[in-house]
Amino acid sequence: MSLSYLNEGREGLSDDYRKMMEAGWGPVRLAIAVEQEGGKDALREYYLKLGTLRHNQKRGFSSSSYTAALEAAGLSADLAARADDATLDEALKASHHAGMDAVGSDVGTPVIHFPRPDGTTSAYFGPVITPPPTGEAAGLLWDGLLALAQVDGLYELKRSRTSGPSFLAMPDYE
Question: H or E segment at 169?
Fold first, then answer.
């Protein structure tokens, strides 16, 4: 899912948000390139490393951040140049639609897809959880979400946030 693609051409965005959306094309293009070259496992590692740099270390999206994330994920730093490669945009849009069409366009990220017994898929925005559960608590959450996904007509659960994000302690990547 790409917020930059989702918000492309959208009216009424603040200048700061518009700048953030413009900066968001690079990391998602690079995510497409990483998956094309190394598959889903490589994408997961790149995404985790870049997310750690962005959220835990407050580093912006830049060539140096991409290089650090790629190297920490065990990938070639040469891939960083693909962040500016607009030829990846069609694959990016296809990936976006594969994730978003089942849930609709008036949601953000994250989006999660659940299998249903009849072979179809339910998709929902969320869950937004901080701090993320681990171990048995994570399993219980998954079981509950999977049960909710079986209910036709369920569209939304939400409550106001009472705290900011709490990220798991992750190693520093230089």
Answer: none
